Amino acid sequence: MSGDLQLSVERFLYRKADLCDRRQWVDYLELFDEESEFHIPQWDSEHVYTTDPKRGMSLMYYPNRAGLEDRVFRLGTGKSAASTPMPRTLHAVNNVLVREVSDSQLEVSCKWTTHIYRFGEASMFFGDANYKLKPVSGSWIILKKHVILMNDTIDSVLDFYHV
Question: In the chain, fewer beta carbons within 10 Å around the N or the C end?
């Protein structure tokens, strides 16, 4: 794998994080393929999480981009009481590992942390993320995002912009 490929993927993930922090939702959504899957499984036990979103519990599951589009729509109209006011977020991405699956697809894993500030209080979510990416127009598009939330004792709202 070339250093250029690694750098390209890292820049893509940094851009995704920045768009989310800036609440540039239209540009953020464009990073996802229309059929992209977004999944945050629930933990079954201390070290085992669900693997099939159709059979096990999930903290969040969208079988395609329409689920994210719906969330963005509700945020834009102010009809998301749980997200009013919107928190300030700061996403950090690190330990990016890229694996070429084929000429037209990559598997990417990374570690992430999201710092959240809302109602005068700071909190944080952190975990692992796994992506399937395909090249498009000199960049990448997300075919699948699978997030493992390590601190899943959630004392507030959990939404796509937290991960």
Answer: N
**In angstroms, rounded to a whole number, what is the distance separating the alpha carbons of residues 155 and 27?**
29
pLDDT tier for residue 70 given thresholds of 50, 70 and 90 = very high
- The count of C-alpha atoms lying within 13 angstroms of the C-alpha of 131, restricted to the half-sphere facing its C-beta, is 27
Q: Please report how many Cα atoms fall inside a 13 Å half-sphere around the Cα of residue 128, on the Cβ side.
A: 7
Query: Which residues are CB-neighbours of 84 under 8 A, at least 6 positions away?
Result: 78
- C-alpha–C-alpha distance, residues 32 and 37, integer Å: 9
Tokens of 22: 């800036």
pLDDT tens, residue by residue, 82-113: 778 889 999 999 999 999 888 789 999 999 99
Instruction: For domain 3-162, give the CATH number.
Output: 3.10.450.50
Asked if residue 5 lies in contact with residue 139, where contact means CB atoms within 8 angstroms, the answer is no
Residue with tokens 């959504």: 29
Contacts of 112 (CB under 8 A, 6+ apart): 17, 91, 92, 93, 94, 126, 127, 128, 129, 163
